[in-house]
Design goal:
By secondary structure, the protein is α/β, with parallel strands linked by helices. It contains 12 helices and 8 strands. The protein has a single domain, classed as Rossmann fold (3-Layer(aba) Sandwich). It is globular, with a radius of gyration of 19 Å.
């Protein structure tokens, strides 16, 4: 296997020479396992083969809905996303760019954003105060969206509605109809989501909390899909979101239907040098996987254990 790229700078070079960022918005790249054989490589999951960025750009050019998944705290993932947004702009596409990280109250600020004041957008929508990583790491995506005249929109459901659904409440009929809420998960979809919630919280969630959390996840995915349809107009939409939201088996693509391409950035792992070693390398989940270096190798369960103690 050819070792392609090992750092964010070379990822940018690989993105067809696109100018993706300025000195004002640089964020520290992930550095761990930069020399891993998979770091910087791009794969077509269904065909189990390594592909070029040109092949990826050809695929997204034909898709109405393009969903770009990330690990939130890896700045390299946001640079990859910004490159794909730029590539679509250079192809003449003007899709809406929908942010999982923004709620309806932030939509006016996103739509009013301008290139010359983008540094102010993060504080204006309380980006970091709401727990997201530095806005500077995400700003290159917004730079490319505005450079190519793309509308930006808030994707997430309002907090009060998420809380209501999490407590077993119901949506009003208009909202339910708009997001297709009547389409429920099959038993295997709900079971898989529940298992993921258990694993991702290190088995420390009370069992009684799981149904509500699963309902909120389904709500958020349905809501995001509804926003993409509302904002998509003639040219569709791009979603910027965590990888779990873009999975095809029960995430946003399941609500959107056809004409979807999903691209997930995935951190490499020590000792896992074959793409098949990664659970995310599954055509039922994603169309393309872009491997990157890691931010860290911390035990994700350590924080849960400390809280429990």
């Amino acid at each position: 296997m050819r070792h392609q790229l090992s750092c964010v700078t070379r990822v940018l070079i690989c993105l067809s020479g696109l100018s993706l960022w300025s000195a004002a918005v640089q964020a520290a790249p992930a550095e761990l396992l930069r020399e891993h054989p998979l770091a910087g490589t791009l794969w077509h999951v269904g065909e189990s083969r390594q592909v070029t960025t040109s092949e990826l750009f050809d695929a997204v050019a034909k898709a109405r809905w393009v969903l770009l998944g990330e690990k939130h705290d890896n700045a390299a993932h946001h640079l990859i996303q910004s490159g794909i947004v730029a590539a679509m702009g250079q192809q003449g596409r003007r899709p809406a760019v929908v942010w999982e990280m923004a709620e309806p109250e932030h939509d006016p600020a996103l739509k009013a954003a301008r290139l010359e004041t983008l540094a102010d957008l993060g504080p204006a929508i309380a980006w970091e105060k709401r727990g997201w990583p530095s806005w500077l790491e995400y700003q290159p995506i917004a730079v490319q969206a505005l450079t190519y005249g793309m509308t930006m929109a808030a994707g997430d459901a309002p907090p009060q509605i998420r809380r209501k659904i999490g407590k077993g409440g119901e949506l009003d009929s208009d909202t339910a109809g708009r997001i297709g809420w009547a389409r429920a998960y099959a038993e295997d979809q709900r079971r898989d989501l529940t298992e993921l919630l258990v694993q991702s919280h290190c088995g420390m969630l009370p069992e009684a909390a799981l149904p509500g959390m699963a309902n909120v996840q389904r709500l958020r995915d349905a809501w995001i899909a509804g926003v993409m349809k509302d904002e998509g107009g003639r040219d569709g939409a791009i979603l910027i979101a965590g990888a779990q939201h873009i999975r095809k088996d029960r995430g946003v693509p399941w609500h959107l239907g056809e004409a979807v391409v999903t691209v997930s950035a995935v951190e490499v792992a020590r000792g896992a040098e074959d793409p098949a070693d990664y659970p995310s390398f599954d055509p039922a989940l994603f169309d393309f996987i872009w491997f990157t270096a890691r931010v860290d190798e911390k035990d994700p369960c350590e924080g849960f254990r400390r809280k429990k103690e």
